[in-house]
Specification:
The complex is a heterodimer.
Chain A: E1 8-24, H1 27-36, H2 39-46, H3 49-52, H4 63-70, H5 75-82, H6 92-110, E2 122-138, H7 141-150, H8 153-165, H9 172-180, H10 185-192, H11 201-218
Antiparallel strand pairs in A: 1-2
Chain B: H1 15-26, E1 30-35, H2 43-56, E2 60-65, H3 70-83, H4 92-108, E3 115-119, E4 134-138, H5 148-158, E5 163-166, E6 179-181, H6 198-208, E7 216-220, H7 229-240, E8 246-252, H8 257-272, E9 276-281, H9 286-295, E10 298-301, H10 311-317, E11 322-325, H11 330-333, E12 340-343, H12 346-358, H13 362-377, H14 380-394
The chains are: A alpha+beta, B alpha/beta.
Chain lengths: ~220, ~400
């Protein structure tokens, strides 16, 4: 079995949330606040949703769509925002621009404002990710599989979502290591094609594991 | 006393390991909590569970309380109420006395630590006597609708902290410091939430004179207008026309005039209907609350104004669907149609109760989803993780 000179270190993460004292009481305010919110707040409410999403909650794709559906009952807007796949954008600014355009278009078509109670306002947040070494290290594909199977779900987010979305590493940390350190480009490419949008981290883990299992069966010796 | 490894059986997989790793990073740093007392709910309830665990983790953790004369406590209560949005008379003399008493407290207390977490209003002005370390103000209530004069006065102290921590986004007042969000939590191994044997459950219910045999609707909370227990009785009466149910309203006793009036109204309702049970419980009636929540078919939390009371999380941890108001932290805890329902009106609460009683297969399904939701989001393990992450972040 191949052994990598550079081991893979599994890291978990904790999302420390920060309130920004920016609130939207209707769709128009949401549009204006979204235009001026820090980029990492846009990231928190879109890509970060993957970390917070649970299998038993409805998949809205991002916090903006969830708010439109549950707090203001605007199902059309909720649907339009929910279908925005953040992973399809080059960067957060392009994603922000697209979300603002959707809101602008929706407001133009609908007209009039619906104010909501402060309890139901959209409260902008950002987060600081505190990375945590999990003490799991892999130098072979079998060790990598063992780590992947047992690691905290936040590690899946950090290595497979955050690294791609914020770090700009298209393959994610797993794919990069498989390609560069373990010299398994085909497996790395299959990892890159995993879609973390509208699913749960446990499902992402399951798909990654099945890819590794197949590679282990194919690997000689 | 519970140890961190005891939580492996209840926390999500991997959660305890992350706590251990984070604790390693802050080991050697001194951490101090300051509150207005050691009894009751809120900050004290959380710290009673968290401080021993942090010590078990090797994090040097201490807990101090401030004290004073009756005037000090009276001003604290009035100031806190005004910061929560109530109209109160706050005299300059009383406020000056509160500040002065905290100056005296500062002299008596050992406030040197790497991180000082000051909880709520009573000890808040201690910050003017800070010496070293980072100081955080931990606000456990909603101060977004604070009375302007009260907030202006209080803000001069709050802005002297390095950061503030609120329970929900939207609970914060305007401050010029970073504001973090950490949701509160329940301790699944505490007397209020631990598993009870069938024998224990029966004994406790017998001692409370709560008879089983009918679907049980339970609301636990103070007998105040904001908890709307009278609205719960009215919802029960609507349901009673269709289902033979029993209602238990359990709350802590108090001699505040509005509570006395509401309690008298509830007692009257109980006299007229033997299936309405009103229980006045002592402040530390954790086992009784545990038993009532476990015996419930459906738990109600029909608050019309709430901070982040954790009754729904406690009930969901026990596998119960919760029907709650749409206020404060209730909407964060109850996932509509998944773990229960949120609503605004008495009629809406009755409608949801009937819906569940008419479709009883939903009750265990929602209960199971609720327990899983709490396991991920509202257990003390998640709270400790957030807190240790905050310590790590601030230490950078």
């Amino acid at each position: 079995m191949r052994s990598a000179a550079r081991p893979f270190l599994f890291m978990g993460c904790v999302e420390l949330r920060q309130a920004l004292d920016m609130h939207a009481l209707d769709e128009r305010e949401l549009m204006h606040r979204l235009e001026e919110a820090p980029g990492d707040s846009v990231f928190f409410h879109t890509f970060g949703y993957v970390l917070r999403h649970r299998p038993f909650t409805t998949a809205y794709g991002n916090d903006f769509a969830r708010w439109a559906a549950l707090e203001i009952g605007d199902r059309t807007l909720a649907e339009r925002l929910a279908v925005v796949d953040p992973f399809a954008f080059q960067n957060v600014e392009a994603l922000r621009e697209h979300l603002v355009t959707i809101l602008q278009d929706h407001l133009r078509a609908r007209g009039g404002d619906l104010r909501v109670e402060f309890d139901r306002a959209f409260h902008f947040q950002r987060s600081h990710l505190v990375e945590v070494e999990l003490g799991l290290v892999a130098t072979t594909l079998a060790e990598f599989r063992a780590g992947l199977a047992s690691v905290d779900a936040s590690a899946i987010y950090l290595h497979a979502v955050e690294a791609r979305a914020r770090g700009g590493r298209r393959a994610g940390d797993f794919g990069e290591w498989l390609r560069a350190a373990l010299e398994l480009p085909a497996l790395a490419e299959r990892f890159e094609r995993i879609d973390p949008y509208l699913t749960t981290l446990e499902r992402v883990r399951g798909r990654l594991l099945s890819l590794v299992d197949r590679a282990l069966e194919e690997e000689p010796g | 006393m519970s140890r961190i490894d005891d939580y492996r059986q209840v926390a999500p997989p991997g959660a305890v390991d992350i706590i251990l790793r984070l604790a390693e990073r802050v080991r050697g740093r001194r951490f101090l909590n300051v509150t207005g007392g050691r009894l009751g709910g809120g900050a004290a309830e959380i710290l009673r569970a968290a401080v021993p665990i942090l010590s078990d983790l090797g994090v040097d953790t201490s807990w101090e309380i401030t004290g004073g004369d009756p005037a000090y406590y009276a001003t604290t209560r009035a100031l806190q109420a005004a910061l929560e949005g109530a109209e109160r008379v706050l005299g300059d003399e009383g406020l000056a006395h509160w500040v002065e008493m905290n100056r005296v407290n500062a002299k008596k207390l050992a406030l040197d630590a790497d991180l000082v977490l000051v909880h709520d209003v009573q000890p808040a002005s201690l910050v003017t006597h800070r010496t070293e370390g980072r100081w955080l103000w931990r606000c456990h209530f909603d101060c977004s609708a604070a009375r302007p004069a009260a907030w202006s006065f209080f803000r001069q102290f709050a802005d002297q902290y390095d950061a503030a921590v609120f329970s929900l986004p939207g609970f914060e007042g305007r401050l010029g410091i970073p504001m973090y969000v950490i949701q509160p939590s329940i301790d699944p191994l505490s007397e209020k939430n631990r598993e009870l044997s069938a024998r224990e459950l029966t004994d406790i219910l017998t001692s409370l004179r709560v008879v089983r045999g009918k679907p049980l609707l339970v609301q636990i909370g103070p007998f105040t207008a904001s908890e709307d227990p009278v609205g719960v009785v009215n919802a029960y009466r609507m349901v009673k026309k269709h289902h033979d149910v029993r209602l238990v309203l359990a709350g802590t006793a108090s001699d505040e005039p509005d509570r006395v009036e509401i309690l008298s109204e509830l007692r009257e309702a109980a006299r007229e209907d033997p299936d309405v049970v009103v229980l006045e419980l002592p402040a530390e009636a954790h086992r009784q609350i545990n038993a009532l929540q476990r015996a419930a078919t459906i738990v109600l939390q029909k608050s019309v104004r709430a901070g982040f009371e954790l009754g729904p999380a406690e009930a969901m941890w026990k596998g119960k669907p919760v029907i709650g108001g749409y206020a404060g932290g209730l909407a964060q805890q109850i996932i509509p149609n998944v773990t229960g329902y949120t609503g605004y009106t008495v009629e809406g609460a009755a409608f949801r109760i009937r819906h569940l009683l008419n479709n009883p297969e939903l009750i265990p399904r929602m209960g199971a989803a609720g327990r899983e939701h709490v396991r991920r989001s509202f257990l003390i393990t998640r709270h400790l993780t957030d807190f240790l992450a905050l310590m790590t972040h601030l230490a950078r």
